[in-house]
Amino acid sequence: MESITALWTWFKYLVLGLVQGITEPIPISSSGHLIIFRELFGIEARGLSFEIFVNFASLLAVLLIYRKDIYRLMVNSFRFLTTREEAGKSDFQFIVYLIIATIPVGVIGVFFGDVIGEALSSTKTVGVTLLITAVAIWIIRNKRGQKHDGALTTKDAVIVGLAQAVAVTPGISRSGASIVGAMLVGMNQETALRFAFLLYIPVSLGTGVLEIPVILQDPGFRELMTPYIIAFIASFIATYFALKWLMNIMEKGNLKYFSYYCVIVGILVLLFL
Question: How many alpha carbons lie under 13 Å from residue 202 in its C-beta half-sphere?
């Protein structure tokens, strides 16, 4: 009986890891879907340690996919700072804009993140915020911006940063909010996607580092070490393939289907959970 219970627990956390991994890159809210699936599986834990742990797996997958961009940005920025070569100026400015865009979510996350997460973590809230996400995605579904990496401005960075800060609310997709903000200021699909996910890196990394003591002190983490590791691996693999899929969807301009999905799930959550 104990072995069956353990297998069932592993299966539940495998599903949660897959849910996190699939929904983190695509604009349908990973935090909202984790709340929904926790409700469906009857997992009562409401702390943030699990979310932070599997989110770090998603971060590793994003780092793997964008490793060449990160290397180029770092090398060219260093070259620009040391030699003032114009060839590296655009990449240096791109990093500066990423830093600027990180500030709003950093401030809100540090001072209000826990309060917002606890106060708005109900399934009803997720149902409403999924509908809001659907509207936002619908607004930018046909936008075809022209701004490339070298054409961004400080104003663009601030707007995208403020958009991402809204995603502190469970059910508002972080990637979705960032992509919506990026496309509203006129970025093309490739630049919008790159900016959104490179922006995800410092935010996720900062959150993970700051919350390490919380994770280690969480009794649920120690008691559920094996299920957490299963979820971590599942999240990493799922994030990698989901982000690759999103890149293809962005290229084809099929974002409207995510809007349809969020409407359907949002309504079902409001009606039945």
Answer: 19
Q: Position of tokens 């709340």?
A: 35
- Tokens of residue 31, six digits: 């935090």
Pairwise CA distance, residues 235 & 23, whole Å: 10
Q: CA dihedral in degrees (15, 249, 205, 34; nearest 10)? A: -30
Mention every residue, 6+ apart, whose C-beta is less than 8 A from residue 253. 141, 142, 144, 189
pLDDT at residue 97 above 90?
yes
Q: Provide CB contacts within 8 A for 179, sequence distance 6+.
A: 27, 140, 192, 193, 196, 250, 255
Is residue 42 within 8 Å of residue 123, measured between CB atoms? no
Q: Which residue type, as a one-letter code, is found at position 177? A: A
Share of the chain above pLDDT 70, in %: 92
Of 256, 35, 62, which is closest to residue 142 (Cα–Cα)?
256
For 62, the domain range is 2-272
d(CA 95, CA 80): 12
- CA dist 201 and 208 (Å) reads 10
State pLDDT tens for residues 184-211. 999 999 999 999 999 999 888 887 777 7
Closest CA relative to residue 169, chosen from 231, 206, 119: 119
pLDDT(120) > 70: no
* Total domains present in the chain: 1
Supply the DSSP symbol for 122.
S
Query: Is the pLDDT score of 34 beyond 80?
Result: yes
